[in-house]
Amino acid sequence: MNNQYVLLYGIYGYWVAYSHVMKPILVIYATREGHTQRIAEHIRALLDSRQRTSELVDAAHLPQGFSLTNYSAAIVGASLHTGKHEPEMVKFVKRHLNELPQIPTLFLSVSLSERTVEDPHALAEKRAQAEADVERTIASFLKETGWRPSHVAAVAGALLYSKYNFVVRFIMKRIANKAGGPVDTSRDYEFTDWLKLDRLIEEFLESTSAAHFPGVS
């Protein structure tokens, strides 16, 4: 009788886990010039290629009736401007702070500082400073929102001079010049390491599968 109970309990547990995994993965982003949206779209395409259903959502325009209970996991991406993550994402996380811990989450911080961190040609001092900046801004975001995501990663963003107004373009050029970045404002520059991003998502998917189906490979 006890063995039968254990077996039934185990079957029920796997059924619950399987039902949870069958829910789509939320890919939500907050962006200013559009590059973080492109990153989110890339992630969704990768999920599709792995036969994992997902939904792409702009944090600034949540669909009516939105609820995190409809998702098995969440990949949350937000870009940085003037040292702060997009206010739409801050608002989203604060509003759903009680729901987020109920599912596996990955927070992606998209910044130009991460570009310097990943640049093998940058001086060690500049890379160390950039890494400290990345860690500081992420810590600030998590402190402001009170969120503790399951996983956190930094992603290099882009310099989109063509999308900036005159003032922002001037400021971004000065920042880029100080960091040893490109200053030709007649073109845009993309720094995202897409292969690295793919590995991050693959690792996240593996961690969510392990969490739902421990001991199963």
Model description:
There is one protein chain. The chain has 217 residues and is of the alpha/beta class. The protein has one domain: 3-Layer(aba) Sandwich (Rossmann fold), CATH 3.40.50.360. It is built from 7 helices and 8 strands, in the order αβαβββαβααββαβα. It has helices at residues 2-22, 35-49, 87-95, 113-118, 124-145, 166-179, 194-212, and strands at 25-30, 54-58, 73-81, 84-85, 105-111, 151-156, 158-159, 189-190. The strands form 2 sheets. Strands 1, 2, 3, 4, 5 and 6 form a 6-stranded mixed sheet that branches. A two-stranded antiparallel sheet has the order 7-8. A hairpin with a 2-residue loop joins β3 and β4. The two termini are 29 Å apart.
The 3D shape can be described as: globular
Biggest pleated-sheet summary = 6 strands, mixed
SSE order: HEHEEEHEHHEEHEH
CATH class: Alpha Beta
- Architecture (CATH level 2) name: 3-Layer(aba) Sandwich
In total, the number of domains comes to 1
If you consult CATH, what is the topology?
Rossmann fold
Layout of secondary structure:
Blueprint (H helix, E strand, L loop, with lengths): L1 H21 L2 E6 L4 H15 L4 E5 L14 E9 L2 E2 L1 H9 L9 E7 L1 H6 L5 H22 L5 E6 L1 E2 L6 H14 L9 E2 L3 H19 L5
Parallel strand pairs: 1-2, 1-3, 3-5, 5-6
Antiparallel strand pairs: 3-4, 7-8
